[in-house]
Design goal:
327 residues, mainly alpha, Retinoid X Receptor, three-stranded mixed β-sheet, two-stranded parallel sheet, 12 helices, NR LBD domain-containing protein, transcription, NHR-like_dom_sf
């Protein structure tokens, strides 16, 4: 009788094959090299040891002039400061509607510097219409402004984009990016020669945010809910003050917590007294998802800014780098 042949059934054979053939999954290039994926192309010969200084002191001076101006007296009775800010926002939207929107195809040095000045001043003007904010010490006001103006810009422009999408003024790939300017997120070009020795291809994943996660989803929520100007102002306040409070702690955290509590009470009155809504938590939760997405994007950009500094990716530096941590 011949020798009995074992392991001829399919199950045992497949198990043995898997046991013999089991190998570790291949390492990613990032793991093998020991660098994050978005800096795999870091080349020592392109590191910038001598940097060009961009002085934004004059920009801060201009902003401080807005923040120290006496508030404009409006012959209208407001229930609270949130309502007062809303009237200013409505006036801003009326003025915007009279101006054509410029389509930006390329973002280079000129566009970036204009972008910084235009939007930093726009944020300062918005803060200047915030009654409780204007009574703070100037150094506190400037620290809050410098740390949060880019967050203010992101939310304000996403809300403006949602409004244009809702009215079919802009296509689904076109987003507002600055005061009076928009771009196509799928086709716009970056010119980075002025700020780095690396190519756009090498830094594309590093520089450009994840549009689907941080922009499109937020615009979809804003388009669906169509927040009122009171709601939008509250979202801007919460986003900006929350960021400043977390960053500085101490005295500024106490200030931002106090201001947010005042505006939370004002928003509650708006929902319950004006809109007669007894249960508004679901709507507010959806709106806050937009703020959370923007804050998450800001955290990612801060981490990338830290890595950019370590690896000397850029050839420029700013006189006030705290203004550009999430740029």
């Amino acid at each position: 009788m011949g020798k009995f042949q074992s392991d001829r059934d399919l199950i045992s054979n497949s198990n043995n094959y898997l046991a013999r053939g089991k190998v570790s999954p291949p390492q990613s290039l990032a793991s093998f090299v020991g660098r994050p994926e978005f800096i795999l192309c870091c080349e020592p010969d392109k590191i910038s040891h001598v940097k060009t200084l961009i002085d934004v002191s004059d920009l801060i001076y201009k902003a401080s002039s807005y923040l120290q101006e006496d508030p404009i007296l409006i012959p209208y009775k407001f229930e609270n400061s949130l309502e007062k800010m809303t009237l200013a926002m409505e006036d801003m939207k009326i003025r915007r509607a009279k101006k054509p929107v410029q389509f930006v195809k390329t973002i280079g040095k000129a566009e970036s510097l204009i972008f910084y000045e235009t939007n930093f001043i726009a944020a300062a003007q918005w803060f200047s219409g915030f009654p409780e904010f204007t009574s703070l010490d100037m150094n506190v006001k400037l620290e809050i402004l410098k740390s949060s103006w880019l967050l203010w810009l992101r939310l304000e422009k996403l809300a403006e984009t949602a409004d244009y999408h809702r009215r079919h003024v802009l296509g689904s790939d076109v987003f507002m990016c600055s005061e009076g300017a928009c771009l196509n997120v799928e086709t716009f070009e970056l010119d980075l020669k002025w700020c780095t020795n690396y190519s756009v291809e090498q830094l594309r994943n590093f520089m450009i945010p994840v549009i689907e996660d941080h922009w499109r989803q937020s615009v979809a929520i804003l388009t669906e809910l169509e927040p009122s100007n009171i709601e939008l102002n509250f979202m801007l306040i919460q986003l900006c003050l929350n960021e400043a409070g977390k960053k500085f702690q101490g005295k500024i955290l106490d200030v931002t917590d106090r201001l947010m509590q005042i505006q939370a009470n004002n928003l509650h009155d708006y929902y319950t007294k004006k809109l007669k809504l007894t249960n508004y938590s679901s709507r507010l939760t959806k709106l806050m998802k937009v703020n959370q997405a923007i804050a998450a994007d800001a955290r990612e950009r801060k981490e990338k800014a830290y890595l950019a500094e370590i690896f000397n990716l850029f050839t420029v530096e700013y006189s006030h780098p705290e203004m550009f941590e999430i740029a």
